[in-house]
Design brief:
Layout (H helix, E strand, L loop, with lengths): L3 H4 L3 E4 L2 E4 H7 L9 E4 L5 H10 L7 E4 L21 E7 L9 H19 L4 E3 L3 E4 L2 E13 L2 E11 L21 H5 L5 H20 L5 H6 L7 E6 L2 E10 L5 E4 L5 E4 L3 E4 L2
Parallel strand pairs: 3-4
Antiparallel strand pairs: 1-2, 4-5, 5-9, 6-7, 7-8, 8-9, 10-11, 10-14, 11-12, 12-13
Amino acid sequence: MKSVNDARHMRYTTGMKEISADALAAALTTRRLGRPTLVFERIGSTNDLAREYARAGAEDGLLLLAEEQTAGRGRLDRSWWAPPRTCLLMTLLLRPALPLQRVGQLTMCLGLGAAEGIAQVTGVTAQLKWPNDLLVGGRKLGGMLTELDADGGKLNYAVLGLGLNVNVDFARDGAPADVAPLATSLLQETGREVDRLALLAAILARTEGWYDAALAGQSPHEAWAARLDTLGRRVRVAMTAGALEGVAVGVTPEGALLVREDGGAVRTVWSGDVTGVR
């Protein structure tokens, strides 16, 4: 496995500029997130590698970035398509002192930080789709994947992956036929290339603010719920045990979705694939 010193000299391309990992570190305004940052030209999965670093003792705040992922994935083991050097493909390693019932708030922190960072740098307003997508106009701009390691009711660490479509054009760049109609990017939304370094620095700064607040006992739940495009809509939720349909009426402080079925019963959904129903 590469050490911190091995990885820090690798290069990362943003927009039309190529910068070193040292320049990336200098651009960050955070105290813990992205310190250190490791950048890789081509790896399998940043989440998988983050777990390796976690097992080796890496500390809270480590950030892994990849220019290209050969085994990138989202929820439900779906593959993640992104041309090299166009997107943000990243994973944060966190070791928060939080009870297990609050670890769902980590995804809330990253989702809020990503949406706020995007707005700050580009002016684009991104909504959140339960449980872990970023949307613009109903099309997918990015996705998150949170994976946990716990033992005896205690959280050892969490890895929070984020894939964000930045300087990719899905019609121009040869996206799979089933991806292009459903996805968008900051390039497509703004009509210009976005400086990925500035974007990343903003996302990390905003995420750290929410993370620090969560560690201090303040829940991001209300702010997260206010950004959820899912709420108030009629949805179908596919789950391992079957499917249910109804109106998404709320979310719990832990992150579960509340769905009111046609008979009036409100179901609590902890995991599932949500689609809108007309």
